[in-house]
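Bit of a strange request maybe. I'm writing a small parser for structure token strings and I need a real example to test against, not something I typed by hand. Could someone generate the tokens for this chain?
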Amino acid sequence: MRIALVRQRYNPYGGAERFLERALQALERNGAQVTLITREWTGNGARRVLRVNPPYLGSLWRDAGFARAARAAWTRERFDLVQSHERISGCDVYRAGDGVHRQWLEYRLQHATRLARSKVRANPYHRYVCKVERRMFEHARLRAVVCNSRMVRNDVLRHFQIAEAKLHVIYNGVDLEHFHPRHRAALRDSARSSFGCAPSDILFAFVGSGFERKGLGCAIDALGRANDARLRLVVAGRDRDAAQFAARAAAAGLAGRVKLLGGVDDVRPVYAAADCFILPTLYDPFPNAALEALAMGVPIIVGSHCGAAELVQAGRNGWVCEPNDAASLAMLLATAAAEARDEKMAAAARAGAEGFGIDEMAAKLTQLYATLGVRPA
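Reply from user aminoacidic:
Good idea to test on real output. This should exercise your parser:
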């Protein structure tokens, strides 16, 4: 089967791109001929890449231009199946890895100031995304939507007129060997030393780009409220406003206890050093980082509007927090400080990831493609 995967940009630090690179390799091992349609790509998984890079000014023109060019490319190539990871109408399969934009806006507006709400509502980009999102989900050609959590599935049903049978929950896959507790054991001492952690320090790892949506501000505030000098936070990820978050930590008296690493090529030392993973995100369909942490044997704290919350067994392999509630999160940090190093919790974390290997994910995708069949020319 000739499959086209559509993703506008590859960012080596992004969870969606890490998923794509592994999925490409797994799908090809299962016999699929995969072509990636993209603006730019630096990965090694795709044997064939179609680069489409129309000029643009601003995010709205960027997305609209790429959508037109990508659609023209897959029409010209006559693929058996087109799976898009971007909101582009006319694809056969859409992977809703970015969730539902109008649901994210709904959560965002709940916690925004009046001025911020006005700016969001006046932003033409948000209006564009909501328009193309509806057009895509309700397009007659769309045959399946891959939802990476039940939360996303429910959000799609809530906001769009779409047959429930088109929605398939296929969780992200993780490389269970690459992210394994034995690597945590081997890397832990050196990684903690590099982060300046004493043996008694309790280190929380935050892994993700886009700090506002991922809840880094809440994590910093909660660390300050916890009033425990042992607690530390290490942040791996990129954000254009990273300096503002560093200043926020300094203003809270946490400059020596919050370390922003920027983008990290290999995140395993971060997980290895950590006692607990934290991502109090405002909205996140399913962060790969949470699954990677579990696979390494690291308990997790994630927000209730996060798909990874569906993997949490409270008090066994992690905890679920409410977004933008620094006071409650501070109490969870105290709980995690007391319990996260328990070997039973580490074992439960690993067990929680073992059903989500990359090959299992690829097999479910392949099965989905087989049920869809090949579209006639």
